[in-house]
Amino acid sequence: MAETKTTERIYIIPLRKEWEKAPRIKRAKKANRAIKEFLVKHMKIYDRDLKKIKIERWLNMHIWERGIKKPPSKVKVKAVKENDIVRVELAELPKKAIREQEKKKKEEDKKKSKKEKAKEEKEKAKEKQAETQEEKQEEQKEETKEKQEKK
C-alpha cells in the first residue's frame, strides 16, 4: 500500500481583487472560485484541476453569509492536502460549528455504546442457549442410561 502524504497549511486568501472583477450578482460564486484557484496554485496541484479542491460547509457559509453581492474581502483558511485532494476549511471555526461537531461526536459515542450493549446481550443469549442445550443433552443421556438399566 502506498503511504498517504498529508500537508497542512494556513493561508489568508485575498478575495476582493477577484470578486470586484465580477458583476454584483455573481460575486460570492467568484469568491469561491478565487479560493479554489489560489489553492490550486499554492498547494502544488500540477494539472490545475479545480475539482480537486473541496470547500468545507462552514467556509462556504462564511462566504455566502452577507449574500451574493458582498462576500468577505479576505478569508483565513486551513488547507489539508491528502494525495491530490485538498480539503479547505475555515481556520477559526465559529462556535456553532464547534457545538455541532461535539454533538455529532456524542451521538456517535451513543451509537457505539448501544451497539456494544446489543453485542453483550447477544453473547449472553448465546451462552444461555448453549447452557440449555448442554442440560438437554445431559438429560437425554440420563434417560438413555435409565432405559438401558431397565432392559
Quick recap:
The chain is of the alpha+beta class. The chain contains four helices and four strands, in the order E-H-H-E-H-E-E-H.
Please characterize this protein's 3D structure:
The chain has four helices and four strands. It has helices at residues 16-19, 27-42, 57-64, 95-150, and strands spanning 6-14, 53-55, 74-82, 85-90. A hairpin with a 2-residue loop joins strand 3 (74-82) and strand 4. The longest helix has 56 residues, at 95-150. The chain starts with 5 loop residues before the first strand and ends with a helix. The model has no long low-confidence stretch (mean pLDDT 88).
Task: Lay out the secondary structure.
Blueprint: E1 6-14, H1 16-19, H2 27-42, E2 53-55, H3 57-64, E3 74-82, E4 85-90, H4 95-150
Parallel strand pairs: 2-4
Antiparallel strand pairs: 1-3, 3-4
Helix fraction? 55-70%
| SSE series | EHHEHEEH
Structural class by helix and strand composition: alpha+beta
- Total number of helices: 4
How much of the sequence lies in strands comes to 15-25%
N- to C-terminal separation? 70 Å
Entry keywords:
151 residues, alpha+beta, Ribosomal Protein L31e, Chain: W, 2 domains, rod-shaped
